[in-house]
Amino acid sequence: MSGKLFIIGFGPGSVKHFTERAKEAIRESDCIIGYKTYIELVRDLIGEKEVISTGMSEEVTRAIKAVKLAEQGRKVGVISSGDAGVYGMAGLVYEVLVERGWTEKDGVEMEVIPGISAINSCASLLGAPIMHDACTISLSDHLTPWHIIEKRLEAAAKADFVLALYNPKSGKRTRQIVEAQKILLKYRSRETPVGLVKSAYRERQKVVITTLGDMLEHEIGMLTTVIIGNSTSFRYENKIITPRGYQRKYTLRKEEQPLKPHERLRKENEPWALHGGKEENDAPLDLANEALSKVKNGKSTVPIVHHVQESILEFAVSPGLANKQFTPEQLKTLAEVVGEKGTMEYTPHHQIYVKIPTNNREKVTAPLKKVGLLLLPVGNVLTIKACDFCDGEKSDSIPYLNELYEHIGGMELPKELNIGFNGCGMACYGAVHEDIGIVYRKGKFDLFIGAKPVGRTAHPGQLVAEGIPPEQIVDVVSGIVHEYKEKGYPNERFFKFFKRVKEVQGFVYRDITPKIDVNPAPCGD
Ligand code: SAH
């Protein structure tokens, strides 16, 4: 008869927070092993079963005992508070098994049952302090050298993790929490919110909300978990809340409104993230707002959080559509507005891409507009790149450029789309290499579409029409762009879209990809 080991995380302490599987496992066990205090917490579930309880520092003894009993064919439930895999019994039992040459195939059966760890149970009592990247650090130096704990505290503090400190203090270990506070204060303000939760979901539960500066003035003990906020965590009522994101981003849109709260976290509004702006599920903020609005309608007294978080305004700046010359005054104003905290990046689109931390869009945009700068939205939008029309000599087509910009400039699209607009057949600003190329020649327009502007198989656009009368050009191009907006897949570049649908506004796709064998480019193509 082969035995079995259940390693049971029973959560913070109240039976209500046991998982169903944890209860079953206790029922299925014929013998329960655990630390005395914990045995008492689950006494009701154990009933008449054999119980082996030991003192606190006898975990190794418990692990060996459990393994031996299972090897004799017993079904042994090893109980561990919180989650058995977090400073719990799971690792110890595996270590004993490894020592004895255990194999999954021939050894006793193992089942580790997950439980709610203190980081989660304590956080729930404090509000929502974890939310973002967080780590657990145990301040117990019984099994871990203090210099390693110090290093981890230092690293976590520096990297702005929310911290959950386990085993913060005991009768004998009193200096560790003092040292930990010192390290944290090197990187975080004294006002950083801190939650002290003692005996979460147990009889003597106590919750204190304090600050990093004052936390040592309160009781901290063996049964306390100390949760330390990151630099964005804030206190509201008697809660600690860590926002989901560090900073909100918004850009200019046609109507020049900052994104509404529920729009800001949409993938299309985060083209700089790893997902590259691609939509999947998302919008946790949507859900949160929806939940809040429901509660509000139900006349609950739950306060709606009005925490003001600084946002980053992102947009592009250029001296004009056809104008390529900055004035000293414009550059000076731009530098002043961007300031120490903002950034400026020169892009391949004849634009300067700026990011400025601010919640006041007007304050940023008004001075720039005043000196004649053109402000353009960024992200998956339509950008028009025009030549300098040889400084005006070939400027007959400029009114059409302006009209086109009025119609569709800045429009949101499945993916960024560039229109090149050049004033003569030389197209020396490279219109034929843009997604859509418009070239003015002898009073009419030539139209190129579907260029592959990047990658090793880059190629110019296909010449789909010659001599389009000026009065038609805006409609023709708008038609193409609207069709792409409507039928393009999220994140699908225009040339891929054209290749897929084969025909746009009556213009038929021809494969003009260079027929050469190339290996993929190292950074993707
Ligand atoms: N396996 C456990 C952790 C054991 S280490 C888990 O996953 O939660 C023991 C430490 O856990 C304690 O010093 C305390 O910091 C924390 N802890 C465990 N249960 C707790 C509870 N109910 N309330 C507050 N802290 C708790």
From TrEMBL:
Its EC number is 2.1.1.131. Pfam families: NIR_SIR, TP_methylase. Residues 4-215 form the Tetrapyrrole methylase domain. The keyword Metal-binding applies. Residues 380-500 form the Nitrite/sulphite reductase 4Fe-4S domain. GO terms for biological process: methylation. It is an enzyme of class 2 (transferase). CDD domains: Precorrin_3B_C17_MT. Pathway: Cofactor biosynthesis; adenosylcobalamin biosynthesis. It comes from the Bacteria. Keywords: 4Fe-4S, Cobalamin biosynthesis, Iron, Iron-sulfur, Metal-binding, Methyltransferase, S-adenosyl-L-methionine, Transferase. Gene3D superfamilies: Cobalt-precorrin-4 Transmethylase, Domain 1, Methyltransferase, Cobalt-precorrin-4 Transmethylase, Domain 2, Sulfite Reductase Hemoprotein, domain 1. GO terms for molecular function: precorrin-3B C17-methyltransferase activity. This is Precorrin-3B C17-methyltransferase. It comes from Aeribacillus alveayuensis. The lineage of its organism: Bacteria, Bacillati, Bacillota, Bacilli, Bacillales.
